[in-house]
Write a structure and sequence with these properties.
9 strands, about 130 residues, 3 helices, alpha+beta, three-stranded antiparallel beta sheet, globular
Length: about 130
């Protein structure tokens, strides 16, 4: 008996390579931490989102907050609730100007009381 071998078409080979690359990429992404620590000046503290450039500083009672536009500047200056968040580990109120800030892959951010609660969050993983 003679074994028949068919040549692999280029499109089939391309699909196999693409699948292998995607599988490898997924494994690499899974290895990344749930959060990346970011500088406060890169965060709009009203939208709670990280940006690729420095945001507009807003001084309030000796502390610096950041907004992405004039509306956010005004809100930070006049609305105390825009300047605070809740630490997802302890449930305590956090001043965004002094918080440790972690950015998720989607660009949203979380605020932590300190490095310890940030590390605890990373150790447990994002359960929310």
């Amino acid at each position: 008996m003679r074994a028949h071998s068919r040549p692999i078409h280029r499109s089939a080979l391309a699909l196999i390579l693409l699948a292998a690359l995607c599988t490898g990429s997924a494994a690499l992404l899974a290895a990344e931490p749930a959060l990346q620590k970011v500088e406060a000046k890169k965060v709009c503290m009203v939208n709670d989102a990280v940006f690729g450039k420095d945001q507009i500083p807003v001084e309030v009672q000796g502390r610096t907050y950041y907004g992405c536009c004039e509306m956010c500047k005004g809100r930070l200056a006049n609305d105390e609730t825009a300047r605070t968040a809740v630490d997802p580990v302890t449930g305590k109120k956090v001043d965004k100007a002094v918080a440790v800030i972690g950015a998720k892959a989607d660009g949203s951010v979380l605020y932590f009381e300190n490095e310890k609660t940030f590390a605890e969050f990373l150790a447990k993983g994002d359960k929310k």
